[in-house]
Amino acid sequence: MATKIKRIGILTAGGDSPGLNAAIRGVGKAALGSYGMEIVGFRDGFRGLVENRRIDLDRTALSGILTIGGTILGTSRDKPHRMEIDGRTKDMTGVIKDNLKKWGIDCVVCLGGGGTQKSALRLYRAGINVITLPKTIDNDVAMTDSTFGYATALDIATEAIDRLHSTAHSHHRIIVVEIMGHRAGWLTLGAGLAGGADVVLIPEIAYDVEKIAEAIGQRSKRGSNFSIVAVAEGAMSRDDARVFDSAEKKLERAKSLNEKIEAKHAIAALEVRHQDNTLRLAHQLEELTHLESRVTILGHVQRGGTPSAADRILATRLGTACADLIAREQFGVMVAARGENAVPVPLDQVAGKRKSVPRDHPWVDAARRLGTCLGD
Length: 376
Ligand code: F6P
What we know:
Layout: E1 7-12, H1 20-35, E2 38-42, H2 47-50, E3 54-56, H3 59-62, E4 83-85, E5 88-90, H4 93-103, E6 107-112, H5 114-125, E7 130-134, H6 150-171, E8 174-179, H7 186-195, E9 199-201, H8 209-221, E10 227-232, H9 238-253, H10 257-274, H11 277-289, E11 293-297, H12 309-327, E12 333-338, E13 341-346, H13 362-370
Parallel strand pairs: 1-2, 1-6, 6-7, 7-12, 8-10, 8-11, 9-10
Antiparallel strand pairs: 2-3, 4-5, 12-13
Helix pairs in contact: 1-12, 6-7, 8-11, 9-10
């Protein structure tokens, strides 16, 4: 197929996740092989487009990266419209647009999660040809069945729960294991189900610590003197959830800049307080159940290392489909996974929307049917 697109830029933004290199390879090899396009990598997210941090991605550079974790391009959480430059925050959208024109880049492929989708939409609205792929271990990007990175992180978190089981059992302890996922519970719910956690706490279902203690007490009465509590980093008690909710509503309702800044500061303060939520929860459970408790925070281990087969396949099929959409000049879209297909979804249907776990999701139902405590 003949295409006007000759040179494409590619970048990875937001937190790294397994499968990014598989996706870069998928886009790059299909763009080179099927369409004879040239592909240029930009380092460190959107900053690479401002500071010309480029790497030519020829066949040699694209070879041997499928199994490597992280991103060969490096990443950052820089936003094009609010970037720190020489100690000041600047809107670099115009600079990026001029740079791309100067360098003869016809379109930019942005690999990222929710924040990246928002930034990409802004660039598209500013007149830049943009196309995105959904990556994040959180699996919370809207309009796609899944994101690459999730499957690998799920395997890692599940294996951790498996390992924690034997030590919890041996010491008759409660082990509270904190799992990533930002404000979504996909990773914790998935790993909790796959690993057979006794309690699963996710941000979508606010918990009552007394109910959790009661469930653990029931287990003890049945002779199981240990419990695994899988808690999402974003999970909250009912009281905390109410406070967060009202702070977020204040931000939504804020009219003046001052009101907005004030509301944002209030949320930031709550987020700081929330950072040791898991430790507090373990302490509360120890007091209520009189069982010794320990905390394991899985943290960035969940994002590291080689991608699973499932993530390699997902990243490769979305990446190669992306090259086809570029050739057809279909921009302003995210390449979403839909069943076995890869479909373009307009970025304005994705940006700013989070895919949370529905309270009636089949996984939630399955967990309840097993007798797993969800804290409510
Ligand atoms: O979005 C991926 C993620 O790992 C979240 O699960 C987590 O909340 C966040 O990134 C951590 O960010 P950072 O790597 O900047 O600490």
